[in-house]
Amino acid sequence: MRIPIIAGNWKMHKTIKEAIAFVDDIKDHVKNTDVEVVLCVPFTLLQSVKEATKGTNIKVGAQNMHWEESGAFTGEVSPLMLKELGIDYCVIGHSERRQYFNETDETVNKKVHAALKHEIKPIVCVGETLEQRENGQTNAVVKDQVIKAFKDIESSKVKDVVIAYEPIWAIGTGKTATPEQANEVIYQIREVIKELYGEEVYTEIRIQYGGSVKPNNVEEIMNQEDIDGALVGGASLKPDDFVKLVNF
Ligand SMILES: O=C(CO)COP(=O)(O)O
């Protein structure tokens, strides 16, 4: 049984004060849920959010990390540093990082290896541009990203990875892939995992959808057979909306 996972990706938003107030607002309303609840927050908020969520079922994630444990990498944060804070998840390869910060399939793969080594669960993002979709390349593009992200990852570790399918044209645009479109690509991603790792892993791995998920469309998305959760940007910043997403 795959436990659905609703993760907020706060991107570059919120001060410590705002983050603590957010957790205080939501924590009593996300208790009796059958979904795993995760907040992926900026580095500066990790420690405060970790403390504020103590004793709740809310897990905490980062949004990026380096693959080395330490070294001369000015401005970077290592998996060891995240592990020390008790961080559960890390978003890896978000399209904004691929687009603005030179993230490549190769660095994504290194980060997936590093996260798993330190028992941080990677949320690996894949997705196509509008142009790629219009040219009928969606499945090929996403398949290539998945194969490269999982290069040399051992089968026994794959169930700890979450994949987030986020079509780039649906991020922050208000345009959602239809639930059927999202399910179709996610089904294909699961088939790729089956080709790579076989039947058992294929049934276990969780695959989320991300891109303009809101309280008014979450239920329809979550009702799709192959979709195991959502990675939510904008709507995860508002306590009321986030509570509605988690209790869809
Ligand atoms: O990028 C996203 C989550 O990682 C999606 O962002 P929005 O929910 O704001 O479209």
TrEMBL record:
GO CC, alphabetical: cytosol
Known function: Involved in the gluconeogenesis. Catalyzes stereospecifically the conversion of dihydroxyacetone phosphate (DHAP) to D-glyceraldehyde-3-phosphate (G3P).
Gene: tpiA
UniProt xrefs under HAMAP family: TIM_B
Keyword line: Cytoplasm, Gluconeogenesis, Glycolysis, Isomerase
Pathway assignment: Carbohydrate biosynthesis; gluconeogenesis; Carbohydrate degradation; glycolysis; D-glyceraldehyde 3-phosphate from glycerone phosphate: step 1/1
Subunit details: Homodimer.
Name of the protein in question: Triosephosphate isomerase
Provenance organism: Crassaminicella thermophila
Pfam families named in the record: TIM (PF00121)
